[in-house]
Amino acid sequence: MITLKEYLKSNYPQIFHLTITGKCNAFCEGCINSLIYGERSSILKDWEGDPERDFEILNYLLNASSNGSPVYIAFYGGEPLLAFDKIRILTEKIDQRYRNKNFKLVIYTNGMLLDKVLSKDREFFKRIELLIVSIDGRDKQHNLFRKGTKLSKIEKNLELLREEVKTPVLMWSTIREEMSLGDCLFEFLKLFNQGLVDYFYWHLIEKDKPIEKFENFKFSYLSDLRMFFEEFINCLRKGTVLPLLPVCELTYFLAKQIRRGHTACGIEEFRNFDILGGKVIPCVDLGDEFLLGELTKEGFILMDQVEVEKGLRKLVKYKKNFGCERCEAEFYCGGRCPVLIKTSLERAKQYCELTRSFVDLGREFLPEILKILKQMDLNLTQIYYPYGYLVLLTDVVP
Question: pLDDT (tens digit, 0 to 9) for every residue of the chain, 398 residues total?
């Protein structure tokens, strides 16, 4: 099998996640920031972005690591739109310094403030490559788990966005064991058919304990996944690629014999970086204990790269104990990522089982998908670009 990096070559992206603020206007159940860092009040000051400082770090990293690949700069939080002015300042600095570079900007948001920021600067959103909006199903389910947000408000904001600009929107669902993945699909199909969203991605939440009623959850989750593949095939028969991103990516990996070749985000690759409060870390969801570099009064300090790379490889040593090399799903998940290993080993094992089941479903449906593609005179690559490719900006399911 060929690795994804070898397959994509110069199209293999580099991603910088920049935490713009720790503030948030929502209180979502199972917030990863609270799980890793504790109470929100403890991170507010340390997480607050500073455009001058953050641009200096970003500029340093771009000059030190740029290799001609596509570069994505993703604004993260908290709720980034609470610090919209800082995002605009940073974007202006990037555009002024790198006039000849097509850096792609991404914003993660809960969507509640879109109307306010659009009224400030609708033109700004023409500059955004992708808007990732958290929606966890239809009204009842979403409002229950995304406390502080309201789905009807988010939907109206998406309508307003479409009236103003054509920024691509990815609907991102975070699945908890009390939730229905199918409910998220129904909401996506509604919004997709209305032309309000363009892509759908889901993943399972990280928690510090295993799923209690795992067999019940597994049955429900896999039943919904089967429905996903069936819906995907129904749309293919009509000549349409339904943008269920993980389904698109897995199908392409299976058909083209591609192996991911690294963990979900490639943390061990010393390629993608998270910028948080003046520090450079491998992943914000792992915490800030592992420091790659820091902007001090004396200037930017980068730790010894050889030692850093050794440390990053240690972060994924768990893969040997997990038996990832012998797993039939390793080509797809790459060993997932260290975050869940850090929070709950037992839950990680459950996710391994669900990942294998997802891959099994992909293998089951692959012959039918390839048959329909041939009948409809569709190219297999149309499943990956732009669909499966965008998983590189997300995570690995589940």
Answer: 999 999 999 999 999 999 999 999 998 887 776 666 766 666 677 789 999 999 999 998 888 776 778 999 999 999 999 999 999 999 999 999 998 788 999 999 999 999 999 999 999 999 999 999 999 999 999 999 999 999 999 999 999 999 999 999 999 999 999 999 999 999 999 999 999 999 999 999 988 999 999 999 999 999 999 999 999 999 999 999 999 999 999 999 999 999 999 988 888 888 889 999 999 988 888 777 788 888 887 787 777 778 888 888 888 888 988 889 899 999 999 988 788 788 898 999 999 999 999 999 999 999 999 999 999 999 999 999 999 999 999 887 77
User: Largest Cα–Cα distance in the chain?
Assistant: 63
Single pTM value for the model:
0.94
Q: What Cα–Cα distance (Å) separates residue 397 from each residue in 59, 225, 263, 361?
A: 32, 11, 12, 13
Question: How many degrees, rounded to 5, is the angle at CA 199 between CA 332 and CA 287?
Answer: 60
- What is the domain extent for residue 99? 2-393
| Pairing, β 273-276 against β 14-19 | parallel
Residue 220 CB-density burial (10 A; 0-12 exposed, 13-18 middle, 19+ buried): middle
Tokens of 353: 């089982």
Number of separate domains in the chain: 1
Q: Which residues, other chains included, contact 317 with Cβ-Cβ below 8 Å and sequence gap of 6+?
A: none
User: Is residue 79, in this structure, part of any structural domain at all?
Assistant: yes
Reported as type and span, the H/E element at residue 351 is helix 345-375
Is 308 inside a domain boundary?
yes
d(CA 349, CA 239): 38
Q: Which residue has 């009509």 as its token pair? A: 238
Give the whole-angstrom CA distance, residue 185 versus residue 225. 10
The pair of structure tokens assigned to 227 is 């429905």
Cα(24)–Cα(40) distance, integer angstroms? 9
CATH number of the domain that 213 lies in? 3.20.20.70
N-terminal to C-terminal alpha carbon distance within the chain? 22
**What stretch of H or E contains 134?**
strand 128-134
Read off the tokens for 116: 């306010």
User: Is the Cα dihedral 169, 175, 179, 185 positive or negative?
Assistant: positive
Please check whether residue 398 lies inside any domain of the structure: no
